[in-house]
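Colleagues,

For the teaching module next term, I've prepared a clean inverse folding example: a structure given as tokens, and then the sequence designed for it. I'd like students to try predicting residues themselves before seeing the answer, so please don't circulate the second half yet.
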């Protein structure tokens, strides 16, 4: 290998600012959107129309 040649690793790659921003937005949405969806559809916002379960106990005194 020649000492005067540059390797591909040492080349300065330009920073892609838009790609960094888009990646950050996607990452934040991935982390926060499920929390908002779960909070929106959680059981606290659902009306509780269930009747309580009652048991009839027969107490026959013989």
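(Answer key — instructors only)
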């Amino acid at each position: 290998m020649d000492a005067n040649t540059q390797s591909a690793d040492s080349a300065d790659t330009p920073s892609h600012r838009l790609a960094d921003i888009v990646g950050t937005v996607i990452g934040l949405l991935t982390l926060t959107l499920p929390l908002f969806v779960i909070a929106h559809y959680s059981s606290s916002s659902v009306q509780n129309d269930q009747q309580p379960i009652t048991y009839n106990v027969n107490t026959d005194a013989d």
